[in-house]
Amino acid sequence: MPFTFPHFGSLKYVFEIMLRELGRTDVIIPNKPSKRTSELGGQHSPEFICTPFKITLGTFIESLDRGATELGMGGCNAYCRFGYYWPVQKLILEDLGYDFKFVTLNYESPMEILQTCKRDISPPGYNILQIIRGFRFAWVVNRLTDLTDQLVYKYRAVELEKNTAEQVADEAFQLIREAKSIRQLRRLQRRLPKIFENKVEIDKEVRPIKVAINGEIYVVLEPSLNLDIHRKLNELGVIVANPITLRKFIDVPQNLNPFKKTHWQKSIDASHNYLEHRCGGESQENLGDAITYKKEGYDGLIHLYPFTCMPEIISRSIFPQISKEYDMPVLSLVVDEQTGEVGFQTRLEAFIDLIARKRERDLGY
């Protein structure tokens, strides 16, 4: 019974490797979402549902047509509509005549995840200890995919030879996929910064603008939905930081470390004067990011969210106050399957030009 999952930026490597470690050898890697994917999802989705719902539905349809019979999806009693994704998608796909099984992982209940993996994902004979080892391997892999993304978002902005950083990142992802042990992964984690440093020649004279990108997790991490915004900013000479990560949910040692707060934990603390309670999505940490990144010397923040996403609409309404109080330029961009690339590029260029002029004024030249 071939298993598949939604395409999710570089996290596709994490999902692929995790399934391998859980004993699955029949994984169908989803294709990168295309215009056809978006049209398929939009055609069969409720009109005003979140854009990620439509993209993931279109991806599932394409994978089912390629022979998949098991669909993996996150699930929980969410604060927003994400909790309804898989039940509604299940009804739609059944109405379309597909024969399949949904496997949902409740990321808010670690024990339930382990039970689901033992019952519905791993082959017979796999015990809980083997499943825990598989997840341990996956969260270490996630650390490396995040690191690779961070490095390419930095080096691509200042590289002298175009596409060099991209090629090095592809090599890095392949090395991650080929690693067979935690020891190899940890060794590779130490090597990755040196690999980029040695292989990517950079302009050492430039003083690049630094911008953070946050928002709804799927929009931020899936290039086909955010119009590859990280690349667009890098091509404008902007170094990009991306605080949005799946490790917030799966990296147990990081999250339970009492001696070190993660970036997202610091951002939630910083947001309490503006949004005291969780209202869904990444709304609290997104607001706090504007404060934490300002303190870290970043020049601006871009907030991405899908059309009709209520938690991020709340964040957007609060950002102007934080921007004013902390002198931190913030640009909120809503995206959906109809977003035009030319207009999107124009807004990015105008925002970066504004930041450049502000920096010149602040520095007095």
Describe this structure in words.
By secondary structure, this protein is an alpha/beta fold. Helices cover 56% and strands 10% of the residues. The protein has helices at 11-21, 35-44, 51-65, 85-95, 110-121, 128-158, 164-178, 182-199, 217-221, 229-235, 247-250, 252-256, 263-271, 283-295, 310-326, 341-363; strands spanning 3-4, 70-75, 101-106, 209-215, 238-241, 300-306, 330-335. The chain is globular.
Q: How much of the polypeptide forms β-strand, as a percent range?
A: 5-15%
Structural class: alpha/beta
Spatial gap, N to C terminus: 64 Å
Spans of at least 5 consecutive residues with low confidence: none
Q: Percent range for helical residues?
A: 55-70%
Integer-rounded radius of gyration: 21 Å
Count of runs of 4 or more consecutive helical residues: 16
Q: Care to count the β-strands?
A: 7
Shape: globular
Report the mean per-residue pLDDT as an integer. Answer: 95
Strand order of the largest sheet: 5-4-6-7
Output the helix-strand order.
Answer: EHHHEHEHHHHEHHEHHHHEHEH
Largest sheet: 4 strands, parallel
